[in-house]
Amino acid sequence: MNEKRIFITDCEGPISKNDNAFELASRYIPQGEKFFKLISKYDDVLAEILKRPGYKAGNTLKLILPFLKAYGVTTQKMREYSARSILLVPGAQETLQYVKSIMPAYIVSTSYEPYIHALCNLTNFPYENTYCTKVDIDKYSLSENERKLLIKFAEEIATMPMIEIPEGASSINDFPEKDRRIIERLDQIFAKVSRMQCGEIYREVEPVGGIEKARAVKEIAAKNGTEIFNIIYFGDSITDVESFRLIKENGGLAVSFNGNEYAVKEAEVAILAEHTIPTSILAEIFNLFGKEKALEAAENWSYETLKSLSVNPHLLDKLRNIEEKYFIKVELITEQNRERLCKESSVFRKKVRGEKIGELG
Fold first, then answer.
1. Residue segments in the chain with a per-residue pLDDT below the cut of 50
2. Domains of the chain and CATH, by start
């Protein structure tokens, strides 16, 4: 049996506090925050509630691209803005360096390539060990008529009321009429955009979210000659759900780091933390002893438990030193506490990443 173990993490959430696509929309599109939030909610509806065939979580990053181009965003602007706006979770750079020193480490992110490139440069993480959404916005043509129409659509979207997802919704009929009309109108708008010349973006750009992330997990396992049960995966959002399910079904370990309700519902361990030291510690335990000992650490998280599991003394000293400054909570997820942790983690992520980014799917 091959015991080569692998570390995989999402980027935005477990490593950085950014939502780069949201920030780009906010920076370059008038009323961009509202515009992005509505499309993100629409994304959640199509991916998780309606489960529309061919649609995957994370397609927000594809849907907004023609609008960014209409407002003058270029590939160079994406690079420059990303490089100057990165905000790491405290400890993230040290965690990435430590983990990649003890086991093969990868970032699997829905984020745009310019952002991941910038983050790798900042943290000295090997770009070749990342999976992300490839995009070169400059290669797509945009006529003046299309530009004006896209701006008109963006203005319309920004004025729409926010979609509310009813508890237990599983079909379009479960939504109030107001929300059904918004969803149907967005369907119409994006269908029109897809028929434009610049709609080629929709056919060529493939956001690494949902099934694409799960596919990356399989590829990483194969590349390293190991099995999925030897993978520990850290995620925080709806785009990690498919990976979490794949990891769990095959005996690996799925960890939510300041996750929203979608992530916590599918994870086995919940981390609520202002610092990445729990990621380093769980990764080390998993690497040395496998899933069961990592679960044991989560179930009985304490300095004494971690010491008994032979955690690196440097990590234990670090944990002790930072616990006075940073909030850290690690908990094994059970059927009894899952609903509570969904709520606690959803609230906590807003504290760490800010209300606007924290509430995104």
1. 1-2
2. 6-17+87-134+208-358 (3.40.50.1000), 20-81+141-204 (1.10.3870.10)
